[in-house]
Amino acid sequence: MQTERIRSTSEARRHTVTRSAVEVFARSGYATSPITQVAEHAGISSAYVMKLFPRKVDLFVAAIDDCYERIVTCLEQAADGAERGTTEELLDRMGGAYAELIADRDLLLLQVQALAAAQIPEVAEAVRRGTGAITTLLTSRARTSERQAQDFIARGQLCHLLTATGAFDVDEKWAQTLTLGLRHPA
């Protein structure tokens, strides 16, 4: 019983630290976010964070994995709501759910920060793993063709650019062109 409680506490703290890492790394980036900042945000000692994540890159990868797990869960839930729908209906629901999800700018910005640090092999692998999970979900659950999966991912990246730069609020022709037909939560 004691071992189970310790494991449970460790898992809960690991989750807390990972969620704090998502927010800290999203806002400050990998290179400029010390582990002490994540520990402070999580309300846990730096020593304990280092026990859970011996290297800073391990913590960053855990944050990236958490981000992609949240995306996949969101897309799965959207697909559940239209299980018998056409591929187009499923993609529409999944796209709408994703637009709502990245309204949480931390998830959006963490993905941007991960791409900025993709020269680090562990980070690149985490991004590939997350992108692979999304692509597999699209082709299996939404029954997309390879081209449809590619287009969905590409539109997601365009949404990142437009959301991160505030282009949905820009009243200029170029912004109207790029935001045409895309949903953006207010």
Could you please describe the fold and organization of this structure?
It contains nine helices and no strands. Helix 7 packs across helix 8 (146-164). The protein starts with a helix and ends in a 7-residue tail after the last helix. It has a domain at 55-179: Tetracycline Repressor, domain 2. 26% of the residues are buried. 75% of the residues lie in helices and 0% in strands.
Key terms:
mainly alpha; Tetracycline Repressor, domain 2; 9 helices; 186 residues; 0% strand
Overall outline: globular
CATH class of the domain at 55-179: Mainly Alpha
**Which band does the percent of strand residues land in?**
under 5%
Distance between the termini: 48 Å
Continuous helix count: 9
Poorly predicted runs are none
CATH topology name of the domain at 55-179, in short, is Tetracycline Repressor, domain 2
What percent of residues adopt helix (DSSP H or I)?
over 70%
Sheet with most strands: none
| Cα gyration radius (Å) | 18 Å
Oligomer: single chain
CATH architecture tag of the domain at 55-179 = Orthogonal Bundle
Q: Mean pLDDT, rounded to whole units? A: 91
* Estimated structural class: mainly alpha
Q: Give the number of DSSP strands.
A: 0
What is the element string, with H for helices and E for strands?
Answer: HHHHHHHHH
